[in-house]
Amino acid sequence: RPLACGNHSCSKACHAVPEAAAAAAATEACEVCSRACSKPRSCSHPCPSTCHPGDCPPCAVESAAACHCGKTTLKFPCWQYQAILQQQDTQQLAAAELGSAAAAANDALCCGKPCHRQLPNCPHPCRAVCHASSTCPDPEGCSEEVAVRCSCRRLKQKWPCSKVQAALAAAGGSRSYDGATALKLLACDAECAAQQKGKGAQQQQELEEAQAAVAAAATATKAAAVPAAEQQKVSTKKLSRAEREAAAAQREAERLAKEKRQRLQQLGLAVLLLLCIAGLGVLLAVAARQLAHWADALMLATSRDKLEL
After folding, report:
1. What is the distance between the alpha carbons of residues 106 and 99, in angstroms, rounded to a whole number?
2. Which of 17, 167, 186, 248 has the fewest CB atoms below 10 angstroms from its CB?
3. Is the pTM of this model over 0.85?
4. How far is CA 307 from the centre of its chain?
5. What's 75's DSSP letter?
6. C-beta separation of 113 from 69 below 8 A
7. What is the 3-state secondary structure (H, E, C) of 118-187?
8. Model confidence over 160-192: pLDDT tens digits?
9. In sequence order, what are the beta bridge partners of 156?
10. How would you classify the pairing of strands 156-160 and 73-77?
């Protein structure tokens, strides 16, 4: 017979069962089903209840999910998360009709913080509230301030990013740029032209002065490049015979003095070595004498011990 759960049959041996009105007073009733619930569910979590009739209760297992922008981890009961996934298409349609701010108020996966994805045309982050669409709303309307300059970099202004994108597109190029792009979108004025003219004249003057200095240095180097051998030859010719002989005698005296100093140094080293050897011999003699005294004392002590025995 089917059990009260409606899913399984009684496993007892065949037995009599009274009518339903007298079932409570029956001497042997059918067993009570205590198996675990095995009904399939819409999620991957098993039902925690024992076998029961009817539908399973909503799944309360906690599920974690990232918000749309990926900056925050949100947690929901499993049954609520399944409902959120089924409502995503409807919420994207609502975002297109009501606007991102109004749709975000009804979006469970919106963390309520700025999106912070990088916009496609500029280096700035999206400032819209966390949204479901992978495309940020109004990427061409970025309001971040950007510094723009003229060609000579004298003039400088702050423009909104949207104006910069429009100017780049009007110039015939792409409206996209990054942080390394030099935004020279301002036109130089008359003062810029005057400064550039003065700067060009100054650079030309500096170039001419540098060239003149290089030429003068080359001339001086060429004039001073006389071989050392020729200079020695000229100075030798100017000396008289007596002066040459006196110079030779002085060099000979210096050589003899140097040899004398070297011999004295060698003699001093030899004397020092002999003194060290003599000192070492004295130390060895003293040590040998002490060793002999110690040996005599040891032999005397040994002899006394034998006599006492």
Report:
1. 12
2. 248
3. no
4. 90
5. E
6. yes
7. ECCCCCCECCCECCCCCCCCCHHHCCCEEEEECCCCCCEEEEEHHHHHHHHHHCCCCCCCCCCCCCCCCC
8. 999 999 999 888 888 888 888 778 888 888 888
9. 149
10. unpaired
